[in-house]
Amino acid sequence: MTSTVPALGTLTEEGSALQAVLLDMDGTLVDTEGFWWDVEVEVFASLGHTLDDSWRHVVVGGPMTRSAGFLIEATGADIGLAELTVLLNDGFEDRIDHALPLMPGAARLLAELSEYEIPTALVSASHRRIIDRVLTTLGPQHFALSVAGDEVPRTKPHPDPYLAAAAGLGVDPLRCAVVEDTVTGVTAAEAAGCHVVAVPSVGPITPAARRTVVPSLEVVDLTFLRGLMTEMR
């Protein structure tokens, strides 16, 4: 985990209950959920196995240990989890070295949060080696800290990553807005007590208490996020 946390006293408008914004990475800020599936298909093809497209909804958004473990069990592939993890990470890094498209609205949202000095964290189930590579495109200056899936005892769908991010920023999880794209991520954020903005990428997500579903990051800005907190007061 890396952290350069600015002083909280200068960060929010007077009367605003929003203390921080916690952002997922794959499928939320960068259009890479499809990359992971493509790499999984290619790796298992090299092992002599074809992945069923219906499995994509099972593996999306979760930790690599879960998705890779599921695929090993489902296919019966003769490969260990540690070896498969290396192959998947290598394949993904090769993909993002060639192209790393941002989701619509991502660059504008990050710039706005930075302009108004809102404490912002990147919270991903991806490993540190992947996060650091993606940060070079997103701009590390936009984030006070980042939390990787291999840096917490339990990653998404458990609340640990979001609780770690809130603690690192010195804020109350109840006053954090989380932006996520999968049910796995939403589950983690809600278990941490955060208010969630869901921007579904692969599977559907339904609205619920403390959960707002939007079609795109293009409708999410600082006014929108502060409004969510105001509604809770």
From TrEMBL:
Keyword Hydrolase: yes
InterPro entries tied to this protein: HAD-like_sf, HAD-SF_hydro_IA, HAD_sf, PGP-like_dom2
Taxonomy, superkingdom: Bacteria
GO molecular function, one term: hydrolase activity
Keyword Lipoprotein: no
CDD domains documented for this protein: HAD_BPGM-like
NCBIfam families: HAD-SF-IA-v3
PANTHER family: 2-DEOXYGLUCOSE-6-PHOSPHATE PHOSPHATASE 2 (PTHR18901), PSEUDOURIDINE-5'-PHOSPHATASE (PTHR18901:SF38)
Protein name, per record: HAD superfamily hydrolase (TIGR01509 family)
Organism, as annotated: Streptomyces griseoloalbus
